[in-house]
Write a structure and sequence with these properties.
Largest sheet: 4 strands, antiparallel
CATH architecture: 2-Layer Sandwich
Helix content: 25-40%
Strand content: 35-45%
CATH superfamily: Lrp/AsnC effector binding domain/regulation of amino acid metabolism (RAM) domain
Number of helices: 2
CATH topology: Alpha-Beta Plaits
Number of domains: 1
CATH class: Alpha Beta
Order of helices and strands: EHEEHE
Distance between the termini: 7 Å
Structural class: alpha+beta
Number of strands: 4
Length: about 70
């Protein structure tokens, strides 16, 4: 399974967050974007429980303000 994460960061720390996300197992891609959200990331796991665990790790990254999870079926 996979999901996309739409992430809001503290101002000016988008690249820092992307670099930290890339260190987390299960994060397949992470990119700075412009608009309502600052970063979009793709995560992948074997089931919803694993996606949840990855999302919890992502939310612990410093300078992240908000995360919206969009699961893909």
């Amino acid at each position: 399974m996979k999901a996309f994460l739409l992430i809001s960061t503290e101002l000016g720390l988008e690249e820092f967050v992307v670099n930290e996300l890339k260190k987390i197992e299960g994060v397949k891609e992470a990119h700075v974007v412009y608009g309502v959200y600052d970063v979009v990331a793709e995560i992948e796991g074997k089931d919803m429980n694993e996606l949840h665990d990855i999302t919890i790790k992502v939310r612990k990254v410093p300078h992240i303000r908000n995360v919206l999870v969009i699961p893909q079926r």
